[in-house]
## 1
Amino acid sequence: MASNNEPLFRFEDIHVTVEDKKVVKGVSLTINAGEKHAIMGPNGSGKSSLVNALMGHPGYGIARGKIYIRGEDVTGLAPNERAQKGLFLCMQYPVSIPGVTVANFLRTALKSLPDSEARLKTFRKDLKASFKALGIDESFATRYVNDGFSGGEKKRLEILQLALLKPTAAMLDETDSGLDIDALQVVAQGINRFCDENVAVMLVTHYQRILNYVNVDRVHVFMDGKIVKSGGPELALELEERGYDWIENNFLTGTEAV
Amino acid sequence: MNQSRQEKERNYKTHELMNDTDIKKLKNIEKEITQEYKHGWVTDIEEEQIPPGLNEDIIRLISEKKNEPEWMLEWRLHAYRHWLTMKEPNWAAVEYPPIDYQAVSYYAAPKQNKQLKSLDEVDPELLRTYQKLGIPLEEQKILVGVATDMVFDSISVATTFQKELEKLGVIFCSFNEAVHNHPDLVRKYMGSVVSYNDNFFAALNSAVFSDGSFCYIPKGVKCPMDLSTYFRINAMNTGQFERTLLIAEEGSYVSYLEGCSAPMRDENQLHAAVVELIAHDNAEIKYSTIQNWYPGDKKGVGGIYNFVTKRAHCKGKNSKISWTQVETGSSITWKYPGCILEGDNSIGEFYSVAVTNNYQQADTGTKMIHIGKNTRSRIVSKGISAGHGRNTYRGLVKILEGAENAKNFSQCDSLMIGSNCAANTLPTIDVRNSTSTTEHEAYTGKVGEEQLFYLMSRGIPQEEAVSLIVTGFCAGIIKKLPLEFSVEAVRLIEACAAFPDSLG
């Protein structure tokens, strides 16, 4: 059962199958409160499949493994129930919901979370503050969710949700992709600001770039559906310098990796 | 098309954003997501019903019951004789077994004293019926100023606020009253927009129509309250055939609302109405409908056949007529509210949301006929299909030779929930001059797995996520409705589209 000593976010031996294809092949990770872990890997290595499966996307079935939030098993739950337990995913490609305003969407989301009553009371104030922190114009609230948004606006809206919904375990999927350097800084500042010592963060990225702005505690190299090497922040720099080939040639064994 | 015009058109079609008040307005509604039809009960009242069948004697009998003048009877008979020569249309994308027109009773009415002097004399059982439907009747208790004409089966049972309106010269009464008290207006305009031989169902209506509403807004008068008619089918084995005739004189304005419901029955009941609107110079008519006839059960048994002819005539220059409809009921809907844009600079608009669930079928759309110069039309249609529902948009935009600089914009979007439903878009555009412009946009999509996942990953339960996507899809249309209608519309749309188990 859940207890205070349990890590905020832990998953064990996760296997993911997409259309009968094994894309994640046994991944385990424990992230404690206040820790930020980076998952780095080349395109097509299965990083996105992992986070989508952890969030409960119906297209990414978990064939084996368990997910725990504060020690509580959430593996069998629907995505909304996982969210209610504190899991959150900053999407790589957030979809648009025409006709639904950002304000309405955020309010509806907040309403479905535990302890929503108190948080709804300060909703307007909190929203304004988050807008300011992320350099977003207030007219954003009346626009339709991701409808006609630029890449940068979409990512800002994701970080805005992170700020307002205050998850326990936050997964960020390629939040840095497609951003210019200014937008990247704003987004990184958002992550630093809103993911404090009470949150466990899993940052999924292809490039080392965002790690110049977000300090992570651990770096895990992800290839061919597995974590193949883990280390401190210096691993990211080494990876940047030597490329994924270096990992492939030195740390991968077996016939699957070519 | 030149640059500035393109720019203008783009602005014209930009989604209007909802402000916070709108959101509150829509979202403060108590959520009543239910699949049950709420208005399916029957009023226990003694009704007089004529035997089934259709012939000249029946028409004479209806005319006699209404104590009609000779000219009215002649008009009916004329229509009937023409109807006999017509064939039921079969081009609509709907399927239903043949209708036996001889098996329908064409007149049913609650028994009551002939002439009512005030609302107090209305049978309390009838008043209760409308109260149960949420239609305010006791004028002194009404907070929202809406004058209502109540049509129960074949007759109008009461009309509120008549005296107040009279002071302004506004005539708002049952069609039958208008035939007696304003024969000149009725004879001048009845059939002028939808002629007795327009189509099979319009001809049938012209022969047997029993009642309906009549509105006349005199020159320069902005009608101070919304006018509305609530249609209720109660008796078994009957059809409802009503006519609405609305005339807006020069420089006048009126907003008119129309609602309807019927009991749940295993048999199909026929509703064939005719609505005619006429706007003179600088007049504006807003016509809003919430159609909630009984849609049949989950297996498609029962429900109303809704075969309706609605047309507006923008007769005068600078006149404007807007149709807004939310169609959630009926087992079959066949209706194409259109505008004849005769006056120069006149504007016709059509905003529609049609929801089909279970085995409902809707073939609906509009006709915009541009005759005058600089006429403009705008069509926004949103079709939502769920279950085994079938939804077809059928539209005609016709720009005649003389309609210089006419402009049309059409947007026809479809949303499908689950994998057993169907959506069709059948637009026809016929342009006969080179100075006019038309634009057509269409979108067809499924309530996507990705959209649902996105909303659910934020904690929103699936059912609520679907309803958010659906109401978002038609937000632009809901905004066009008067407040008291928009609340009802959202409730109906959510109830009708709330079928999480039908998601594929």
Note: Confidence is low (pLDDT under 50) at residues 1-35, 139-144, 500-504 of chain B.
## 2
Amino acid sequence: MRITCPHCGSRGLTEFSQQGDASPLRPDDGAGEAAWVDFVHFRDNPRGEHRELWQHVLGCRTWLVVTRDTATHAILRVEPAADVRGRPRGRT
Amino acid sequence: MSPDAFRLRTGGRIDRTSRLAFTFDGRRYKGLAGDTLASALLANGVKLFGRSFKHHRRRGIMGFGVEEPNALVTIGNGAAAEPNTRATMVELAEGLEATSQNRWPTLSLDLQAVNGLAGRFLGAGFYYKTFKWPPAAWTGLYEKVIRHAAGLGRASHAADPDRYDKSFAFCDVLVVGGGPAGLMAALVAGRAGARVTLADEMPALGGRLRHEDRRIDGRGAMLWLGEIERELAALANVTLLRRTTVFGAYDHGTFGAVEQLASDDGRLPRQRFWQISAGAAVLATGAIERSIAFAGNDLPGVMLASAAQGYLFEHAVVAGWRPVVFTTNSSGYATALDLVRAGIAVQAVIDNGPVVDSATARALHEAGVPLFRHAVVERAVGGRAVTGVVMRDELGGRRELECDQLLVSGGWNPTLHLAAHRGGRPRWDDQLATFLPPPADGELLPVGAAAGRFALEDCLADGAMAAVDLCRRLGHAARTPTLPGTDEAEPYRITPLFAVEGAGAKAFVDLQNDVTVADLRQAAAEGYRSIEHAKRYTTLGMATDQGKTANVTGLAILAEALARPVAEVGTTGFRPPYTPVAIGALAHHHRGPHFAPVRRTPLHAAQVVLGAVFFETGLWLRARYVPRPGEDMAAASRREVQAVRAGVGVVDVSPLGKIELAGSDARAFLERLYCNGMATLRPGRARYGLMLREDGMVLDDGTIWCFGSGHFMVTTTTANAAAVLSHMELHHQHFWPELDVQFASVSEQWAGLAVAGPRSREVLQRVVDEPALDDASFPFMAVAEGRIGGVVCRIARISFSGERAFEVFVPAGHAEALLDCLLEAGATDGITLYGLEAMGTMRIEKGHVAGAELDGRTTPRDLGLERMQIRKKPHIGAALRDRPGLTDPARPMLVGLVPVDRSERLRAGALLVPEGAEVVQANDLGRVTSIAWSPGLGHPIALGFLAHGTERLGQRVDAVFPLYRERVTVEVRQSCFVDPEGERLRG
């Protein structure tokens, strides 16, 4: 498996570490327990397009959102996680 | 028998002047340089190579290359013995020792061959049905008997003495297979300037071209081959890997390959594991001939027709002087003609198909070879080897023909394995009666025979066109070359035949696993409709050869038995590796001391000189204790603890994770990372900090050193240094990118010592120029950047031992000098270098939590640190830390434990149950996490987690360790055994 890091180019799997699903947004601090339980514990396991958090841990250390097809393993998109929303809109 | 009894006087690509001596089953033989073990033994007239897996039937050589199912031998002896090696793939070397397998006591007299007589009872699923009752007999009796009787070679059980290498390769175009298609692809791509890697599993390039009498551009094909090879070798952008098997295709153009390297003198590693990243790959792996199932088709002397050509052209070896050819397709005729031209008396060509007028057939007829059409071989006849065949014509008439070899061609199966490794399903082709690779997916282009295009001109054209296509896609201007001209050959035609009608119980499909036509039909009759199930039930294709000659035949027979089209039954999944790969090659350098990298602190060498004994903690090698002559670990660490408690000691704390943070939002960032407050942390002060995960469990602990309102350094535990940094990076980059904070690991930049004990301040002050370390200006939890002999240092008054103590960090290059200065300055105070054992003892005495307590299952409340948490502030873990399950008062919490009988030892990992209670889930009260023998108290102590811990103070519970049948009654104490008020710490 290879991932094209936006900073470093095409690199082998061993340079990266995987954190899991990138789709859940970190709830507002005041959000209820249900929202947090959902964020922390529940994940979809789709066949097809899936957004995942990867870190180029043995490279530039950038966290990436990798959009990957779980059926074909094709990588459709790689973006720095800093450019991808990690929280609901409009709050801090 | 003469070593050349079965070798022609001329021809072959062997060196007739170079004789090589070798042994097979202890008997001495001679071969020639250029032989394989298989060709050399055939030349010596050896027909029997092994006994079959289940029935112990006599087996000879079937194939020429990787497809060989029968001739598995063990090469070498002792630890280096390699079992299950195909004799066809072993290049002969002087002194080679080979041994046959699965026979007892000897190959020619195998007493277990009686299995063969009982064979009609050893059908599919035999073991499942027979060896069921009683259950105890399975491990005691059945398994032993079966393992002795069935099986292939045996592993040596000794460590592999060979060395293995690993390399990475990057190329634009990977060409798998160096036959005509692969060579054309490499040539066109190479000429266009693309980076090309061509891998072929054989010692010499050329593939099937080497085993047929063909002409290219009006000359012998070998001349053309030599020219191409020279041009490829001269291209700097082309890498040729011979003896290299590409065994797996993985995602995104990644391929695994193993190259055979072994040289006679042992200078080279045995194999090299290649990880190849390719822009695209050309699959030019050719095709493998298949056999036909008929009675006795496994007798020694029955061989694939193409193999006979291989031995003839490569080694000038013939396995028989009077062969019969049995074919379903046109290539059998070509084989027969090549043999006739070499002077071999081909007895007959038997073809199940109709009369087709072809140049080959005419030439054979003219040479006087009888051609039988609409006929089949019903049975091979012979005892120790083939002596004849029973032929049956279309009217059912039988006739026996004498022969000393039976060459079989059931048709050709494209070697499509790599194309299916990533999940693509092969497609059935009725015309060719075989499976073709799944459609090309852009990363892998099957060409030539691998794509079912068997004609030489198609192979050459396919290879060239694939290269042009890939090069253009990769941005290289490739020109379509003028294709070399080939001599005319008849087009491939086949009349499909997988099993001869009326084939008895002993018509074999999978020779390596002894699977017969009857087994497959029985599986179908018993309801196995899915090919994946039938495969596992019959073990079709599950031996070390993975059914290279068997699978397609087996599928076709099964489909017929199920009355379904083959296309619908489909194939089983193809998974790497294509051929067996030694685990040693995959592990390559990563074994023994190189299994994982070793991290040593900047103070390692100095501590070696001082006599420290080291041990592994994670990747780190750390000083465990520093014994004086005659001391064991217990004595040394007890002395070290006493030295710290009474005077002063130093310990290497360099492996602590250290992260430096700066920025106007650095404090706000820390507030969110830690569950305790950072708002009031002033410059010049440090604070203990507890990090949670989002689920409320403790992630890590450490100290936060404040150097300025926007400048901090935090320490992490050694074990979690990398995880904490990643955790901080994720939250900063993804969740809170608006925060103005920058941070970096400085773990390796700062090396450090903890200086601990009542005399620590005096000794440290002797070497520290600034700051002043007196209580007033540098109280407990003070930090400062200071100077030691002109070198910058960072000092904090922090204690892990419970004594007055300091952590001092200096740039890593000055660590040894710092240790020297401290040992010299403290000599008169008896300063003592101590190790992790003493440090651990002191932290347990003090009730400080460490890795054993911070195991990802504990909350601040469990650790007795609940009051540290700031209730109002948002931080990681705040939302979920107060869920009912985590605030349950019955949740085990941190306590101290002391054995009632002070002489009894405690064990970390012991379970806590009520006194005298049975060890069952219902009685579970918690667990022991850390144990030590306290020099101060003079008896064992422990930390653990106990339900209703605070309510049980002073009560007794049992610490049980069922594995060793141990039960120790312990008294529950506060977790802090020493100086609970912290007077020594602050004083």
Note: The mean pLDDT of chain B is 92.
